[in-house]
Design a protein that fits this description.
The chain is α/β, with parallel strands linked by helices and 538 residues long. The protein is 22% helix and 18% strand. The chain binds 6-hydroxy-flavin-adenine dinucleotide (6FA) and ligand ABL. Ligand ABL binds next to strand 13.
Length: 538
């Protein structure tokens, strides 16, 4: 059974691509290595208290923080060294679901996008039509645990920030704050798997296979003939073939796609040689005269982020989210069981803010900072006494404009990892991050009762950043490993191939403004429309 389009990976990018291709009448197979996630995808990983309503860990927004405390976290990709979701929905099945409509700067030619991408607004409208955002996710219209918003907004107002509905004005990203925006729907994790995936599944020309690991593309020079999987029962020799004008779209994520390309003989020679020396993967490589030398894995970015922890007498730290899986607060549990409203209809953050910085960087570039605040804290190191039931965290990220870059690679066991860590490799990023952290707390005196506990004072911020492990700055927003115009062309086709495409975070050449999955859906809408228009395909 041959396909017009084989899409590898069911993250936000792969699901949007597969939905639009099948909508256009193409014969499409979506191949996902992981298991089902939410109930509407066939998942059944229930919390003890959500079993009666058959909602999984991935469905209930308020269970998000339990991703990081589960004793058996089977959904993380077990061969990638950083957090990555390997299940239906990819990162969007397990992420914080912060959801931003991208500003124009996310698709700017100055950021490395070809001019043909400047119609991003058309694609943004398509996304909004399928998946509107909400900053008031509980279906009863009330906002729960609002104290963090109230305290941090006082702090920011004293710095002349404006309180706006953030997604009403995506371009307003200097001195702006607002309620956190999500893509939850009716008290459930929504996102692409509740929308685009559901329409695709209804089409007879669309097929999805789970638990199916793609190892490499089958390649004869520039021509791709299919993909090799680990499922030799469903597919002869594990191979899924393409029709004569068919195409493969890799949407396996910034790490997953880079590795698939290495295993297909595409990338820097040092990485393809790692594959060549592998006992089983090596034999599937094309001969070395067919290797395609492209900077796959280079030019990688992720937001550097640093946490600061505070207390305030009005904050309810929500027991630091520890009991939510086994012992939720009975009132909140019962409210959610009744009509999916209340604390469990929210994610953990409550407020987000942005500010632009021209200085103290010395390279003349503007860098944006983004702040996220939530009740509780992932970890606290302090010598100060504090009231644990009143803690909250402000995470400060640097986003658009950062210049630091790293590299993704694979080790001898084909594990993917940051070969060169991307955080603060450029001193200018470090200068701006330190300044942004100091500015954020500069008005603490205007918020009666607010205390800083990590670091122990504003004067210790430089030291806090210097002592912060670089990998602790990981924000899970990996971009750039198959950058557009470096690895793929303006139509997302891998250079020097006829019919191999990449549509995922890897092609994004520059750090987007916000947590990226909204921007990635728009990117995928734009990319798939270009692929459909490109002559020569099925
Ligand atoms: N982004 C946001 O916008 N808001 C957030 O709140 C947010 N939070 C998080 C977060 O809390 C965590 C812990 C993580 C890890 C990420 C977060 N992100 C957030 C980032 C966001 O989820 C990612 O940027 C986004 O999901 C990236 O989308 P992509 O389409 O580029 O790639 P994915 O990794 O999502 O999906 C790849 C899929 O391919 C997976 O389903 C994987 O199982 C599959 N796959 C990989 N290799 C494969 C192979 N060889 N064969 C078959 N399938 C494969
Ligand atoms: C994101 O975009 C980040 O990638 C996540 O790291 C972040 O969640 C979510 N959004 C929500 O803001 C944090 C959790 O709140 C922490 O408890 C956890 O320690 C951290 O992710 C791990 O990276």
């Amino acid at each position: 059974d041959a396909y017009d389009y084989i899409v590898v990976g069911s993250g936000p990018s792969g699901i949007v691509a597969a939905d639009r291709l099948s909508e256009a009448g193409k014969k499409v197979i979506l191949v996902e290595r992981g298991r089902a996630s939410t109930a509407d995808t066939g998942g059944n990983y229930y919390a003890p208290w959500t079993e009666p309503i058959k909602l999984t860990k991935f469905d209930v927004p308020g269970l998000f923080e339990s991703m990081f405390s589960d004793p058996n976290p089977w959904w993380w990709c077990n061969d990638i060294d950083v957090f990555a979701g390997c299940l239906v929905g990819g990162g969007t099945a397990i992420n914080g679901a912060l959801y931003w409509y991208p500003p124009g700067s996310d698709f700017d030619t100055k950021a490395g996008w070809p001019a043909s991408w400047s119609d991003y607004a058309t694609h943004l409208e398509k996304m909004k039509a399928r998946l509107p955002s909400t900053d008031s996710p509980s279906p009863d219209g009330k906002r729960y645990l609002p104290e963090t918003f109230n305290v941090v907004s006082q702090l920011l107002k004293a710095q002349n920030y404006n309180n706006i509905t953030l997604n009403d004005n995506p371009n307003y990203k200097d001195h702006a704050f607002g309620w956190t925006s999500f893509d939850f729907i009716k008290g459930l994790r929504g996102g692409v798997k509740a929308t685009y995936f559901q329409t695709a599944k209804k089409r007879s020309n669309f097929k999805v296979v789970l638990n199916t690991y793609v190892q490499n593309v089958i390649r004869n020079g520039a021509q791709i003939n299919g993909v090799r999987t680990n499922d030799t029962c469903a597919f002869k020799d594990g191979i899924i073939p393409l029709t004569s004008k068919g195409r493969v779209i890799l949407s396996a994520g910034a790490f997953g796609t880079a590795r698939l390309l290495f295993q297909s003989g595409i990338g820097p020679t040092d990485m393809i040689n790692v594959v060549k020396n592998h006992p089983t993967a090596g034999e599937f490589l094309p001969p070395s005269n067919q290797w395609i030398n492209l900077p796959v894995g280079h030019n990688v970015q992720d937001n550097p982020s640093v946490n600061m922890v505070f207390t305030h007498p009005t904050i309810d730290a929500y027991d630091n989210w520890a009991p939510i899986w086994n012992n939720p607060r009975p009132k909140d549990r019962d409210q959610y069981l009744k009509d999916r409203s209340g604390v469990f209809a929210h994610g953990s953050p409550r407020i987000n803010f942005w500010r632009a910085y021209g200085t103290p960087a010395t390279d003349g570039k503007t860098r944006w900072m983004q702040g996220t605040s939530r009740p509780g804290a992932a970890s606290i190191t302090t010598t100060l006494p504090y009231n644990a039931s009143q803690i909250f965290t402000i995470t400060t990220y640097l986003s658009t404009g950062i210049t630091s870059r790293g590299r993704i690679g694979i080790d001898a066991n084909l594990r993917a990892f940051p070969l060169v860590e991307p955080w603060l490799t450029d001193k200018n990023d470090e200068l701006v991050l330190k300044r942004a952290l100091k500015d954020t707390v500069s008005t603490i005196g205007s918020v009666p009762g607010m205390k800083m506990i990590m670091p122990e004072s504003a004067a210790l911020i430089d030291q806090h950043v210097d002592n912060y492990s670089r990998s602790g700055m990981n924000s899970n927003h990996w971009m750039g490993s198959t950058s557009i115009m470096k690895v793929v062309d303006a139509n997302t086709k891998v250079m020097n191939t006829n019919n191999l495409f990449v549509i995922d975070a890897g092609i994004v050449p520059y750090m987007p403004m916000g947590n990226p999955h909204g921007m990635l859906i728009v990117m995928a809408e734009s990319a798939v429309s270009k692929v459909l228009k490109l002559a020569g395909g099925a």
